[in-house]
Amino acid sequence: MSASLALDRLRIVLCETSHPGNIGAAARAMKTMGLRHLLLVSPKVFPAPEATALATGAADLLSEAQVCATLEEALAGTVLAVAMTARERELSAVASNLAEAAREAVAWTVRGQVALVFGTEMSGLSNEQVLRCQRLAHIPTDPQFSSLNLAAAVQVACYELRRMALGEVPPAPRGFAPASSEEIEALHSHAQKALIDLGFLNPARPRRLMPRLRRMFARARLEQEEVNILRGILAAIDVLVRRAGAGQPRN
User: Fold this and answer.
1) At 79, is the secondary structure helix, strand, or coil?
2) What CA–CA distance (Å, rounded) separates 188 from 211?
3) Which residues in 77-231 belong to E strands, given as ranges?
4) Which residue among 112, 138, 166 closes a domain?
5) Is 248 helix (H, G, I), strand (E, B) or coil?
6) Which of 4, 26, 177, 238 is most buried (most C-beta within 10 Å)?
7) How many C-beta neighbours within 10 Å does residue 22 have?
8) Residue 41: which of 68, 72, 2 has the closest Cα?
9) In this structure, are 119 and 229 located in the same domain?
10) What is the domain range of residue 225?
11) Which of residues 177 and 76 earns the better pLDDT score?
12) CB of 73 within 8 A of CB of 39?
């Protein structure tokens, strides 16, 4: 795959950005590195003159930016999502440094769309948003001062993505077609319902069962056929639960 095609399959997702100027600066950072797909999840203010002013030559990326209500919507159609965060998360996916994550991200563009996800300027990504991603990555800054401006973080990330796209990229992961973000989310929803119906999951006291399942599925990097198998097993459980319920005496 050519570098330009690989870069065209990468998207930058900014979640709940507070300052519109950071959106414009991020768009400029993307364009300097050949990335074009900017998705904004519930930005506080957009469009805005501050965003256009700081885009400086990348106003076209702002006009084409997709505004989404949820991160799930922004990740639709992706085969890999990488959460960018400076903090370790107990139930998150496997963490790696940015260079390793960029290398894997570019490799997965052979299979489909890949997203790098950034959080708010003040608090970064929430734990729930991190769990929507299959990988966790960080920029190896000085531990005494690890906070990067959002646009600066996007610039560094886009540079690494371009460097990997132009350089020697590892072979694409083997196997059948990977499951998309929507297919994974449908599996999680189906699993949660089935576990509740079985009495295995108490929705009033869920503890950490579903986040742990998310982490397990993220490590597995499920293929479409594997998701279909798991959904088939869950469907069989649904039938057995309905039959058991139908056989119970009515009050």
Assistant:
1) strand
2) 10
3) 78-84, 95-97, 113-118, 135-138
4) 166
5) coil
6) 26
7) 24
8) 68
9) no
10) 181-246
11) 76
12) no
